[in-house]
Hints:
By secondary structure, the chain is an alpha/beta fold. The chain has 19 helices and 27 strands. It folds into three domains: 123-258 and 272-342, 2-Layer Sandwich (polyphosphate kinase like), CATH 3.30.1840; 362-530, Endonuclease Chain A (Endonuclease, Chain A), CATH 3.30.870.10; 535-715, Endonuclease Chain A (Endonuclease, Chain A), CATH 3.30.870. Strands 14, 18, 19, 20, 21, 23, 24, 25, 26 and 27 form a ten-stranded mixed β-sheet that branches. Strands 10, 11, 12, 13, 15, 16, 17 and 22 form an eight-stranded mixed β-sheet that branches. Helix 13 links the parallel strand 12 and strand 13.
Amino acid sequence: MATDAPPTETMFGPECFLNRELSWLEFNLRVLEEAENSDNPLLERLKFLAIFSSNLDEFFMVRVAGLREQAFGESAPQDHAPDGMRAIEQLERIAARTQELVARQYRCLKESIGPAMVAEGFELLRYDGLDGPQLEQVDRFFRERALPILTPMAVDPAHPSPRYHNRGLYLGVMLEHVATEESEALGPKRLFAVVQVPQVLPRIVGVTGTTPGRTSFVLLEDVVAARLPELFGGFRVKSWTAFRITRDSDLELLEQESDDMLRLIEDRLKARQRGQAVRIEIASKADQSLARLIIDDEGLHDGGTGREAGGTAGYSEVYQIDGPLDLTALWELYKLPGHDKLRDKPFAPRIPRGLGRRGEDIFTAIARHDILLHHPYESFDPVVDFVTSAANDPRVLAIKQTLYRTSGDSPISRALITAAESGKHVTALVELKARFDEANNVSWARQLERAGVHVVFGFLDLKTHCKVSLVVRQEGQGLRRYVHLGTGNYNPTTALIYTDLGLFTADEAVAEDASALFNLLTGYSQGHDWQRLVVAPNDLHRRTVELIEQQARRAEAGLPSRIFAKLNSLVDHRVIEALYAASRAGVPIDIVARGICCLRPGVKGLSETIRVRSIVDRFLEHSRIYVFGPDEEAQVFLASADWMPRNFFRRVEVMFPILAPDLVQRVLREILPVYLADNVRARVLDEHGEFHLLRPADGQPAVRCQIEFLDRRGGGDVAAS
Length: 721
């Protein structure tokens, strides 16, 4: 496959760029700020605490693990680092900042959210504070559900240290033999042992409260810790601590060969639990000798006191936690039934404009006019209906579909199975390397294959990240193709909480490109002259830079110009350099970057015309919108890709144009201005890499873009629930 070559040299000094990893940590701070924000409903604040922890887990498993390999291993870095920081320097800065953020997270839990939860009737009980009836409940739970699962594990020369599972919660125990005449023969006098807290059981164990109407619970690890003497009969518990280890969990498949990618992915998933440790979280009150056993056994750095490597003095991978470990468990509280007043108000997505005419099927609607969908404000049901209708329509001959992240009970995957079983030609490109969704995708791939779907897995060294669905239908004497393209996944669950845009079209040139794209994915077919779609790794990077440079030339010629980019992350240094050049030429540039931004805006002589903002709110901002040119001449694109090296060079991505003039105007007049007007949840980036929350000026109305979109919802009808 012919591809752009990733640029390796930068025309600008390191002072012109922000560090990628530190920028990501500042994004996670914005998530934490939503937990701290008392304007949010209480359980939504709790949710943001859980998301903060989940985000941090993935960051350590992938990004920190990669830096650690660069710093202490022999592998070369995969991405150019224009900010100039060495890997060890980045690790030190990451560790220091993460320690600050985690401490702030637990302060928020203890000093703000915790007391508010108590005021709303939630009650976290300690095991030693349970009354008689509560002890009976917990005892029954322990004996009936926990005890049959628990496995006490001694660690000595005859019982080597277990390989602690990635993100598993464990209790480390120091035991002392209770001397009796018959006990001397079995086991040493002192013993280190571990017990894994079962992941198959809820962390939140409900109990009947002392006050009617209160939601009372105890933590599972507290229950298990209280029963340690029963698990280690004949020993006295001298001390115990909870701990949790995070491991390198990136599936590295480059340079590997396999005749069966499905089997290769399954093998790597098993290995993921045994990757190199990159972080340990341990109770702050842990006995130091006990903690040292675990830390040293895993070879973790602890500010120069643990395993040494060059330049690691002060760098620590040990996080001492003053509170419950692994706050992703807070999802269990968030999902408890009831307590609706403590959550965001529910909403009903509307049917997108152009759909919903009485008696009109979806293909007739698409043939009549292109249809733009704005999720979650507009329903995802038409996307599901597109595939399910195709599966059941006798005139549909073929369906081709990419699947990157699907829901556990995916209606789209089930529709593909139905279509194949009814004799249609069905092709599914299942991306097995979708990070942390690999197991789900492996399961669906097996089911699809059994049903007769032609399942392919793309390329070993490239992720297929584009979102495309193609339906071939017999109409009259010929065939007509219908296409859906999106910025987000074919997942009805996340479509309710992610903001994304999608396009239905029967445009023949788009359909021709979509067919060529599937031929590329299934048969390596190349040489197609792309008419509408811009595809990575073929030419998305080149075309993006070209579009930016066109606006720079317009500005230099004294013509109106403009660049708008809404994306998840802005990292690629060549694109940033092109934006700097465009800014120097006078192009007004607005960036809405949810996560990472390595560009420094507002620097005199470099980026004075560039404004960068980030929006973190109820819904995860996930749509990618790229606009080049003033309104009357604007080229509007949607894409599956961010402006990152991995999207440009290591993934199959698609950027696609909005062609219908009314839909172009909808993006320009109804979507972009609302994002740029937000002064409630928007944060503006300064040249030093810090984000500042906007507030309405005196007399200025408050604008919260997601609420504005909820209130508008595209002007369509309310979708059936």
